[in-house]
Amino acid sequence: MRSEASSSFPSAEELWTSLFKNLCERIGPCFARSETREGVQAYLRGLLSPVERKNGWQLAEEAGLSTPYATAVPVEPSRVGERRGARSAPSLCA
Question: How far apart are the first and last CA of the chain?
Answer without folding.
Answer: 47
